[in-house]
Amino acid sequence: HVQLVESGGGSVQAGGSLRLSCEASGNTDDATCMGWFRQDPGKEREPVATIYLHGPMTWYADSVRGRFIVSRDNSKTRLDLQMNNLNPEDTAMYYCAADGRVCSRLDPEDYYYWGQGTQVTVS
Asked: Where does residue 77 rank: exposed (0-12), middle (13-18), buried (19+ CB within 10 A)?
């Protein structure tokens, strides 16, 4: 079982930056992918970025590529998302996810464990 706790959300003006963090506890040794997803009320959960836990590969949604950077520590217990040049369309609840199997698919259906989310508001 894996528990995920996100932090770092908040309110920021357009053009600003935020850094989200996700602390994982439990057995992450067998996990292949971790990722960030986001969701607005009334909309489907959409991908933001995913990362392969056994190598340097990352994947990004087109809407954030070039502005966001996903990273992890070597112990696979912490996942970060550096968000730059934020715009109002980035406003959403951001969720950390773990135990994904195919990182490149950027599909929330691949992920078994989810955090409670952290709100990001850009005005």
From this structure: middle
- Residue pLDDT, tens place only, 9-32: 999 999 999 999 999 998 777 788
- With 0-12 / 13-18 / 19 or more C-beta atoms within 10 angstroms meaning exposed / middle / buried, residue 30 is exposed
Question: Is the pLDDT score of 117 beyond 90?
Answer: yes
Closest residue by Cα to residue 83 from 66, 98, 99, 96:
66
What pLDDT, on the 0 to 100 scale, is given for residue 76? 67
Which two structure tokens, joined as six digits, stand for 97? 């996810």
**Residues 80, 20: contact at Cβ < 8 Å?**
yes
Nearest to 58 by CA among 76, 92, 33: 33
Q: Which of 78, 89, 72 is nearest to 115 (CA)?
A: 78
**Locus of tokens 């934020």:** 86
